[in-house]
């Protein structure tokens, strides 16, 4: 009883395997996403300049865009250089916007004196603004035309 079932499954698997090879051979050459051969030298993408000044938000509760370069900012488990200007203890003397008070709430809603661990990595939500073309099309429009 077991032998005919195993033999049948083996024959089916072999047929599918060789059929797949035939289909793979007839589909043509593999196309690269790069758009050129590996040996070809492609021009480097244009470097888009950082935009200065604040941008308007596109929707309510949108995290603000960062209006300055963050290339040299260290943000890791021990250090967050954004807080050297934007923490509530430093923002006034540095002339920087302070963090929202929601950044000082833990998961249970308890008010903390330091930034909550869930809000520590600023670049999870906030990104530098750059004058770069959109990677994909976008037809987004605010629902009431205001920010």
Topology:
Blueprint lengths: L1 H25 L56 H4 L4 H4 L53
Family: Belongs to the NapB family.
Subunit structure: Component of the periplasmic nitrate reductase NapAB complex composed of NapA and NapB.
Organism: Tropicibacter oceani
Overview of the structural elements:
The longest helix has 25 residues, at 2-26. It contains three helices and no strands. It has a domain at 50-133: Flavocytochrome C3, Chain A, domain 2 (Orthogonal Bundle), CATH 1.10.1130. It is 22% helix and 0% strand. The chain is elongated, with a radius of gyration of 27 Å. The protein is mainly α.
User: Could you estimate the helical fraction of the residues in percent?
Assistant: 10-25%
Order of helices and strands: HHH
Query: What is the class of the domain at 50-133 in the CATH system?
Result: Mainly Alpha
Principal-axes geometry comes out as elongated
Overall CATH architecture of the domain at 50-133? Orthogonal Bundle
Strand elements, count: 0
| Secondary-structure content class | mainly alpha
Low-pLDDT ranges: none
Tell me about the largest β-sheet: none
Number of helices: 3
InterPro entries: Multihaem_cyt_sf (IPR036280), NapB (IPR005591)
Signal peptide: 1-24
Family: Belongs to the NapB family.
Subunit structure: Component of the periplasmic nitrate reductase NapAB complex composed of NapA and NapB.
